[in-house]
Design a protein that fits this description.
This is Electron transfer flavoprotein beta subunit. The protein has one domain: HUPs (Rossmann fold), CATH 3.40.50. Helix content is about 30%, strand content about 25%. It has eight helices and eleven strands. The strands form two sheets. It has a nine-stranded mixed beta sheet with strand order 9-8-7-10-6-1-4-5-11, with helices on both faces. Strands 2-3 form a two-stranded antiparallel sheet. The longest helix is centred in the N-terminal third of the chain and has 14 residues. The radius of gyration is 25 Å and the shape is elongated. The mean pLDDT is about 90.
């Protein structure tokens, strides 16, 4: 592999799925790990956002000497400044996660970057095997643990899948000693985001009965078989209002409606 391959890894602020606390994003950490494997000396890790965010030290603690920050407000649009940065940095390989764990989390940023730069995009990469003669052999992650090898010309953008190598443990001391290069860039307000109304996600209604049959015969048997036991109640002499209330109470109990 050529010693000088300009690799840029884009990182964001993650969010723990249970506690909601800020953390190193899972896929972004894998992208940095893949970048370190390719070329530690020519790897540039970039974050568009708040330079004072403590989570950035978790990325730096992976063995980085420095981390580049493009300052952006919370309502800023990261796309224009990232396009300008990638053009000026002469990047050959750009690594990102499939989607962010916070914010819009649409997964569209790599595609928009590829469109603006005119570069190919390789989705869900598990590993980059070789880079030589202006092309890279990339291993894609497919469903059920399958892999596919493809050849892509440089430069390109790759989204890193969870099948890629796990990010190494971060070290507190090196993370504090790493140099943060805060660049002077012009922030662009995200006009579309300013019109959105963001609310907390609600749990989806669940099905009353989930059939775990593997064959068509098993599914037919489960659908037609007479239920045994259970806490059912037969209502014959009750009024229509009482029957409706009983059905509504069952739906509330099963959390089908709220």
């Amino acid at each position: 592999m050529p010693p000088k391959v300009n690799v840029v890894s884009l990182v964001s602020i993650g969010r723990h799925p249970q506690s909601g606390r800020s953390r190193r994003a899972e896929q972004d950490g894998r992208a940095v790990e893949l970048g370190l494997k390719l070329s530690k000396k020519s790897l540039t890790v970039v974050h568009a956002g708040d330079a004072q965010e403590p989570v950035l030290r978790q990325y730096a603690g992976m063995g980085l000497d420095s981390l580049t920050v493009l300052p952006q407000p919370a309502d800023g649009d990261a796309l224009p400044i990232l396009v300008d940065f990638l053009k000026s940095s002469k990047a050959q390989v750009v690594l990102t996660g499939v989607r962010a764990e916070s914010g819009e989390s649409s997964g569209m940023l790599p595609y928009l970057l590829a469109e603006q730069l005119g570069w190919p995009l390789v989705p869900r990469v598990a590993e980059i095997l070789t880079i030589k003669q202006g092309a890279a052999e990339v291993l894609l992650a497919l469903p059920r643990g399958q892999r596919r090898s493809v050849i892509v010309s440089l430069p390109f953008i790759a989204t890193v899948d969870n099948a890629a190598a796990e990010a190494r443990q971060t070290a507190f001391g090196p993370g504090l000693r790493a140099d943060f290069k805060v660049l002077d860039v012009n922030s662009v307000k995200d006009e579309a985001m300013a019109t959105w109304q963001i609310s907390a996600a609600k749990p989806r209604p669940k099905r009353l009965k989930v059939v775990k049959a593997k064959t068509a015969a098993d599914r037919m048997k489960a659908a037609t078989a007479k239920p045994v036991g259970g806490g059912g109640k037969v209502m014959k002499n009750e009024t229509a209002a009482e029957k409706a209330q009983a059905i509504f109470d069952l739906l509330l109990e099963e959390k089908v409606v709220r």
